[in-house]
């Protein structure tokens, strides 16, 4: 029995080998037959075109998008197909081994030459078409040209916007027109600059060559180049949307002319007239006293923070007229205060590794906005948030341990992660507000709101049960393992911005001017503030949730006081 099995095994091995050999022979024979029946001849222009050779039909080549008819008249060498060779083997080609080269290789040469011919002939047309397309009528403003751009000494000195993913010409135009600017300029495909004075130094049109990040076929400037549009005609409909904010009634400085760089005296002066005048002069403040209009910035000589009695100005304010005497009305124009918008990475690596630590939803992004504008340096992040990067937080893409940023955002609370930092700003917010903010971000992004369906679903109580304990443990762990801490309460920062921001900047060992801090106050909200508080017609926190959160609040408050920090603000406990 064993002998018979051995013979069967031996036979199967031979049959397997035979089958493999026959398959290989069949494939080789088929390849040789194909090579003999198909031949490509590389015909040089100097040898002429035999009568039995034919060029590809121009209409066919145009139809498949290979070459234009005029390219067939070119004196350059062509790769031609011998049509008779497709019918029978040629006997006179045995003199050269060239025909034995792989057919696929020669077909690749054929396609490559055709493609090269096609692109070389089409490139001027495509370039011209692209240039013509980039400033089409769909862009409502008037294209003024390509101009030089220096980010440090900007010629368009108004508002600045970034969108490294969705920037379009129309978006930039509307943003500048809405803020009462006359010109909109785009650079680097993603940056939008506004102003009322046309740049002086023109550049070559072809130097504006970077495609808009959010609009294919349109150009958004170039490297140190601005594509500038006039948006004056867009301002008329935008004027209804422009938001001139009433700042209050303030005691006028002793010398208004020295305090404010621009002024206007106009009989029957109105708020609209003064605001329009100051907007054209690119100033964020419009100050009215009687028939006098003054334009400028918040400064140490005139910090519009502590107003006089509202009743003294309310009547005249409601009538769109200004008071006389020593009081003046102050309005925020649509123009952005740009004295603090320049930012950069640290030129040398920071010796002190500083964290900006908070529980999610505690205002970390807002604090980063304030720090960046106050210090002039980018902040980094332990994570990478594409939405933040696209809105101008360029430190998001920098490695968090590069030490090129002034501080690093983190929500981590483990011992190892905390001890990596030399010091930290610990930002704490009311847990009720933090939980709601993080829940909104989780389900609707940085600027959206979760739906009522989300709030009433099972996810919300599960979220509170897990995240409420994290809010407490985050603070407790940083108090335990943090080496050097500055505790900042979100509510106090919001209420007393300048003093608290000054503490944060000093903790970061950066010296800033009072005027720069006032500029930050003028731009306090940034691009990541939800538009108003969306009121819900129900209480999202059950009594059980409140009891749980209040216990955590008392624990954190006690821990802070135990480390000689001020306790939590009174509004935290109990809810």
TrEMBL record:
Kindly list any coiled-coil regions of this protein: none
Keyword annotations for this protein, in alphabetical order, are:
Repeat
PANTHER family named in the record: SIALATE:O-SULFOTRANSFERASE 1, WSCD FAMILY MEMBER CG9164
A molecular function (GO) held by this record is: sulfotransferase activity
Locate the WSC domain: which residues? 140-232, 243-340
Native organism: Zosterops hypoxanthus
Which named protein is this? WSCD1 protein
**Source organism, top-level taxon:** Eukaryota
User: Sorted alphabetically, which Gene3D superfamilies does this protein's record hold?
Assistant: P-loop containing nucleotide triphosphate hydrolases
- UniProt similarity note: Belongs to the WSCD family.
Question: Which InterPro entries did the record assign?
Answer: P-loop_NTPase, Sialate-O-sulfotransferase, Sulfotransferase_dom, WSC_carb-bd
